Amino acid sequence: MRRTSAAPTVPTEPPTRATPRSDWVTLRKLLPYLWQYRWRVGLALAFMVAAKGANVGVPVLLKYLVDALSIKPGDAAALLVVPVGLLVAYAGLRLCTSLFTELRELIFAKATEGAARSISLQVFRHLHALSLRFHLERQTGGMTRDIERGTRAVHSLISYSLYSIVPTLIEMAMVLTLLAWKFDALFAWITGAALLVYIAFTVTVTEWRTKFRRHMNELDSVAHTHAIDSLLNYETVKYFNNEDFEAKRYDDSLEKLRRAALKSQSTLSLLNTGQQLVIAAALVAMLWRATQGVVDGRLTLGDLVMINAFMIQLYIPLNFLGVLYREIKQNLTDLDKMFRMLETHREVDDAPGASALQVSEGAVRFENVSFAYEPARPILHSLSFEIPAGKTVAVVGPSGAGKSTLARLLFRFYDVGSGRITIDGQDIRQVTQASLRQAIGIVPQDTVLFNDTVEYNIAYGQPGASREQVEAAAKASHIHAFIAGTPKGYDTMVGERGLKLSGGEKQRVAIARTLLKNPPILIFDEATSALDSANERAIQAELKSAALGKTALVIAHRLSTVVDAHQIIVLDGGRLVERGSHAELLAHDGRYAEMWRLQQSGKADAAHA
User: Fold this and answer.
1) Per-residue model confidence as pLDDT tens digits over 474-491
2) Neighbours of 32 (CB within 10 A)
3) For the whole model, what pTM was predicted?
4) Nearest to 364 by CA among 162, 569, 135
5) pLDDT tens string 129-176
6) Is residue 91 classed exposed, middle or buried when 0-12, 13-18 and 19+ CB atoms within 10 A define those classes?
7) Using CA atoms, how far apart are residues 225 and 313, in angstroms rounded to an integer?
8) Fold of domain 23-71+79-343
């Protein structure tokens, strides 16, 4: 018999404030998603350079157009010498700027949307692949907010970098080269120095204020989590008349968010004011130099117009550099959070080279299984028993004895600490999780349904099942008559988590779903706990029929539901204390017999009440 050592404790989700890492690390993780669209990236860059070339050509043509005009007021004959060619060329360059820009966006849209889709799908798949422990500990509101922001960050990063930052850098290079070549180098030096001061100031201040923005986003996630958690527990809020308490709790989060937003806005105002001072100083210096050139005769009036137009074209996009840089930094932070989800450790993963489970008979064995959710709180202690192929074994015991843990271990939501679980002699840790779960069906104690139709929820047991198959499963679980009696029948929406249905109705939908799946191994985890006595007796017969010829593990609190089991196992404190048939255990007059007498006396008291 093979034993495995207890798995080391590994963090299953990143801490709230993960260790910051270089933005380049995040960008390198994004590049592979764009690489598959590399030809589109190249073509989009070519259109971008063409658009900026046309844009830089506009002030040049404007210069020649101004210099070509020497018209005196009232000189009608001078209209004949208007340079029509330059006017047409000017209009053409304006059109080309817009045309090439639109072509760039059209070509690159598929790459942007494709990358966002690939990343989102990968994160979605990874989250489903994570262990149950992760999903029990996660905060749904904050996590969905992180995914939403991360997906949006892909679009924004590409949009800001390809559509704003890179084009501005290309245009800056073109303008500086033209100024240095056509005029004296001082024009280029003034422009270049102003740009460096502007960029350095923007980056420094933005880096400083990023922590305020990050803190604001964290508070936003907290507020969103509180709101989602409260709405998901709507009935509990109503039961305890705690609407005001929840509103106060949410308002406290919003107040913290408001203060953080105000602090972020005040630092943004400081950034914008400093940027405008740099721009104003540069414009004054450039125009003073150009005006002196015109007065001295070294420059024409057209040169002055061209230099002014260049400055306007450069500083309009640069005016948004602070916003762009801040957004890029925030988008990188948001994208990094989503990438960190992909790095979250899979506590339960397929073994390298794992093969598909081959079920011939369906015999299940627990061999010296020990397990603990937390090291300090062991649940199961060296538990060994077998569910023979085609037989039904029931597990009973007090609350906290570890009954439902058996189902979680068999489904491999967790791995055993020591010992092993086998199906037809195959260790379930050595087979793929997909094939393992395909072979097992479960009716859980707490049934949660999708916010969709009744038909969708039943057909979830076998996606693509026909209406006839769905109805057959519904009839077997005694819910067809109820569904047929509703105005919309099988198209009835069940509501969030199935809240529009009663507990018994939800349980019968879950039974129908499992019957439709028709797996060789069945688990009934308190499957009739939400039903009244009449429905319980009716469904018990159907469950017994469904389990005929299948390997079944029945986890029960009501002992009356397991009297027909081939073997009953009694757990107490995670240890097997008794086993045998119903009659054998009663004859033994031990723990099971005591539980039986207590439940029977309870029924008698209820009958006389």
Assistant:
1) 988 888 988 999 899 999
2) 10
3) 0.61
4) 569
5) 776 676 666 666 566 767 777 777 777 777 776 667 777 778 778 888
6) exposed
7) 44
8) ABC transporter transmembrane region fold (1.20.1560)
